[in-house]
Amino acid sequence: MDALEFQAGEAKLVSYSPARDLAWRVVFEDEGAAGYCYACDGDRATLDDDFDVTVLDAMLVYNVDALRSGEDGDRTRLATIEWSADGQRAALRLDGVPQALIDFELRESYCRSNFPNFMDDGRNGWRSADHRWNEDAMLRFETEALQAR
Predict the structure, then answer these.
(1) Terminus-to-terminus CA distance in the chain, angstroms?
(2) Residues 6+ apart with CB under 8 A from 82
(3) Pairing verdict, β 11-16 and 2-6
(4) Average pLDDT value over all residues in the chain
(5) Looking only at Cα atoms, what is the longest distance across the chain?
(6) Cβ atoms within 10 Å, residue 66
(7) N or C terminus of the chain with fewer C-beta within 10 Å?
(8) pLDDT tens-digit profile of 90-146?
(9) Is the entire prediction scored with pTM above 0.90?
């Protein structure tokens, strides 16, 4: 598991699949206005390491202004990325609460915000028209993670 303590408005956590033969990576990034989770394929990287080329899917995790508006809005938070044993699935959690789940094998992602959604254009074979949270998929991920320990 990879972890990062951060303040809303500036954070970046990159996590790589534990399966050495898979180039999957998950990036959590907060550039000031919003926090996003990206599913990436490292095999698509160029010599310039152009991040955009590697992105298979993107999900909004939070809007910084909305996150800061709560009574504990400026506190330090903890982002973690946990992988399945086979390196095909990953979950992003904020303060222990799952926010995004990526399934590289099925080429689909889920997030609490269900945003952004794009018309599926067949690019990457990734389901991007619906990111609606799937509690059953998260339960399968957590059960698999417990069995692997």
Answers:
(1) 12
(2) 1, 90, 91, 93, 145
(3) unpaired
(4) 91
(5) 44
(6) 11
(7) C
(8) 999 999 999 999 999 999 999 999 999 988 776 678 988 999 999 999 999 999 887
(9) yes
Count structural domains, the chain: 1
Other CB atoms within a 10 A radius of the CB of residue 146 amount to 8
pLDDT (tens digit, 9 = 90+) per residue, 64-76? 999 888 788 789 9
User: Nearest Cα to 111, choosing from 94, 136, 132?
Assistant: 132
Domain containing 76 equals: 2-148
> What gap in Å lies between CA 68 and CA 38, rounded to an integer?
22
> Contact 11/36 with Cβ under 8 angstroms?
no
Burial of 143 (0-12, 13-18, 19+ CB in 10 A): exposed
